[in-house]
Amino acid sequence: MGFPRNEQTDELFAAILSLGDIDECYRFFEDICTAKELKEISSRLCVARLLDRGESYMDVVSQTGVSSATVGRVKRCLEYGTGGYRSVIERLNEKDK
What we know:
With 97 residues, the protein is mostly helical. The chain has helices at residues 7-18, 22-32, 35-52, 57-64, 68-80, 84-96.
């Protein structure tokens, strides 16, 4: 299950890991994504963090503007996914302290 591992995806992830700072990330993602795609991805991370803090579905929808279906999908990933959201949230929480 999940994304098929292939050379193109490996190269994309290696490129992301090579970025040195936030400004490089902005430049790279502005070139590689549309503004809408980036907003959707960043909104999902925001949803995951809000759910992790115990916010209700309706509060998350209200705060982020995403659909309840997106909130549900992110919630399922948090509960039954591969742990990707969880590891990133933990790192961000540590950084926020």
